[in-house]
Amino acid sequence: MKKTLWIGLGLTLLFLLAAAVSLLWTPFDIESLDIRNKLRPPDAQNWLGTDHFGRDILSMVMSGARTSIAVALVAVGIGMGLGVPLGLWAAARRGAWLDEMIMRGNDLIFAFPSLVIAILITAVFGASAVNAIIAIGIFNIPVFARLSRSAALSLWQRDFILAARTCGKSAFRISYEHILPNMINLLIVQGTIQFSLGILAEAALSYIGLGAQPPVASWGRMLADAQTLVSIAPHVALAPGMAIVLMVLGLNLLGDGLRDWLDPKLRVTRA
After folding, report:
1. How many other CB atoms are found less than 10 A from the CB of residue 125?
2. What is the DSSP secondary structure assignment for residue 175, as one 8-state letter?
3. Domains annotated on the chain, with CATH
């Protein structure tokens, strides 16, 4: 458990640090083109080589980390910020028309994958990172709503909730003073998992041209640009591809480690 947690935390912090540093500094300007040095293999000057425009790939990967993390983080924040209250509300009104309406709305959103939602949004508002955030965020809402409702329903049967109801507390106060603090562990783990899925979704949307637009760097668009160059310059595709793999791997390992660490039953079992 500890090894999984620390490896995941290390990989995640590595990319978070790269994204933070890219706000202030990158080895080269990602908007500066140098056609004379295009497709250079990795060397002492360009550690990961250059792309078909002569841009430094390391600088592109660092800036792409900032884009992917920002899109995924905001999208998960939207999903959690709207989905958790809806799930708590539905659990507090179990069996009522409000509960049914919220859950059927979740089913409707689940019927459309985030990619389809992004295509619909892009057709109306145009391709951009903001629209990618909206699309991924909308898809995250029912994920957190269902998780919150399921966890809250089991907690509503506990004795301490009955005691709170006996004291005259409203459903709203019980949900936010007693239910939510007891399910925060689940939300942290699920948030980590959705964060990794958000990274993949952002890369997929950028790959097909629906995510961040030039000159903003994006791992998905770097892969799209490199797909015809794999046979002559594999390093152009390898760098963003490995960045996506390691970032998602780190987040999944972190989520798995947090689940084991935060769940007392699993901690006792592994001990």
Report:
1. 11
2. I
3. 2-270 (1.10.3720.10)
Q: How many CB atoms lie within 10 A of CB 251?
A: 25
How far apart CA 74 and CA 83 sit, in angstroms, is 14
- pLDDT band at 124, cuts 50/70/90? confident
For 129, 146, 166, 234, the CA distances from 214, given in Å and listed in that order, are 10, 36, 59, 22
- Give Rg (Cα) of the chain: 22
Count CB-CB contacts under 10 A for residue 97: 8
What are the phi and psi torsion angles at 113 (to 5°)? -60, 160
3-state SS, residue 226: helix
pTM (predicted TM-score): 0.90
Among candidate residues 240, 125, 144, the one with its CA nearest the CA of residue 183: 144
| Residue 264, pLDDT score | 58
Burial of 65 (0-12, 13-18, 19+ CB in 10 A): buried
**Polymer length in residues for the chain:** 271
